[in-house]
Design goal:
Elements (H helix, E strand, L loop, with lengths): L4 H18 L3 H12 L4 H8 L5 H41 L17 H15 L3 E2 L5 E3 H4 L18 E2 L8 E3 L5 H9 L4 E10 L11 E11 L4 H16 L4 E9 L2 E10 L5 E10 L1 H6 L8 E8 H9 L12 H4 L3
Parallel strand pairs: 1-5
Antiparallel strand pairs: 2-4, 3-4, 5-6, 6-10, 7-8, 8-9, 9-10
Helix pairs in contact: 1-2, 1-4, 2-4, 5-10
The structure holds phenylalanine.
């Protein structure tokens, strides 16, 4: 006895539903779909065979086949939706960025040693009552020299190996070779009392070596108030030295010359092992400088200092060659 079309259909449908449910992914499901319902599928063959049946059986057979097709098609659609949903969930999960979680294994970066030195210096000085000010890196001759009591003809100009910018009158625009112009800018628009530090990048026409850079950083200090003396300058330098380096460090001043301070000094820091670190220059603000910004030198006096930050950072970390700071080699930078 040949199996009736109904039995065939039931077997086909049952097997088909099992295969649909077992399809592991969309590609496999597509394959099953074609095999069950495509042109070469058994179900299509059954439909073609209907013509050999009696008209009565033909109608019932056709309905049964259509019903089976619909059942299988619905099962395929349902499984497809299920697999697509799972795919999206998987993709979301894979692409998820958890910005709140810090994995213990994740390594955080840190700021550059010079940036940290500047921030540390700012902390120390703001703790002593100073504000922090900044000025432009491209300056005019007036702010960088003239207002600082250094006329064009002054031999002291050679103290700064200045890089000039090709803009305006020749020699009128430059990359600041020190942070002292920020003193002028500050005094111009701030009436005394002034207690401020001014960190920033400076530029000099210089060949780099183990202790010099053509682009480096300075921090300037300026105090203008009534009755400020050289003793205040020396005391401030020493208080800063101990706050920044620790109690076992001390400072000394040596006579020197700067056109914008009178008297002027160099200051050195004494390390606990007895060696000295030459840090920068300082002095009492020259009366001409005060006059240049409209401050009465009879009423106010002040002191200023300026020193290199990069040198301070390398000395703190025991780095032998200052150029290492800016080669941007992570193997070097990650040590700090
Ligand atoms: N501007 C000087 C320099 O770069 C340092 C300095 C600042 C000296 C303030 C005295 C007062 O060499």
């Amino acid at each position: 006895m040949t199996p009736s079309p109904t039995e065939d259909l039931q077997r086909l449908q049952q097997l088909g539903l099992e295969r649909i449910a077992a399809a592991p992914d969309l590609a496999a499901l597509q394959q099953v779909d074609t095999e069950l319902l495509g042109k070469r599928s058994e179900i299509t063959a059954l439909k073609a065979g209907l013509g050999q049946l009696e008209p009565e059986q033909r109608k019932a057979g056709g309905q049964a086949i259509n019903a089976a097709r619909t059942t299988l098609q619905q099962a395929v659609d349902a499984r497809r939706a299920e697999l697509e949903g799972a795919g999206r969930r998987q993709q979301l999960e894979a692409e998820r960025l958890d910005l709140t979680e810090r994995r213990p294994s994740a390594r955080l970066g840190h700021l550059h040693p010079v940036t940290r030195a500047i921030q540390h210096l700012e902390d120390v000085f703001t703790g002593m009552g100073f504000t922090v000010s900044e000025g432009p890196e491209v300056e005019t001759d007036w702010y960088a020299f003239e207002a600082l009591n250094i006329p064009t003809w002054h031999p002291a100009r050679s103290m700064w190996d200045t890089i000039y910018v090709d803009l305006g009158e020749p020699g009128s625009t430059l990359l600041r070779p020190h942070t002292s112009p920020v003193q002028i800018r500050l005094m111009e628009h701030t009436p005394p009392p002034i207690y401020s530090v001014m960190p920033g990048r400076v530029f000099r026409q210089e060949t780099s070596d183990a202790t010099h850079l053509a682009v480096f950083h300075q921090i300037e200090g300026l105090v203008v108030d009534r009755g400020i003396t050289f003793g205040d300058l020396a005391g401030t330098i020493d208080a800063f030295t101990k706050a920044y380096f620790g109690d076992r460090f001390s400072s000394r001043l040596r006579p020197s010359y700067f056109p914008f301070t009178e008297p002027s000094a160099e200051f050195d820091i004494r390390r606990p092992d007895g060696t000295w670190l030459e840090l920068g220059g300082c002095g009492m603000v020259h009366p001409n400088v005060l006059q240049n910004v409209g401050i009465d030198p009879e009423e106010f006096s002040g002191f200023a200092f300026g020193f290199g930050v990069d040198r301070l950072a390398v000395s703190r970390h025991g780095v032998a060659d200052i150029r290492e700071l800016f080669t941007n080699d992570l193997r070097f930078l990650e040590q700090f």
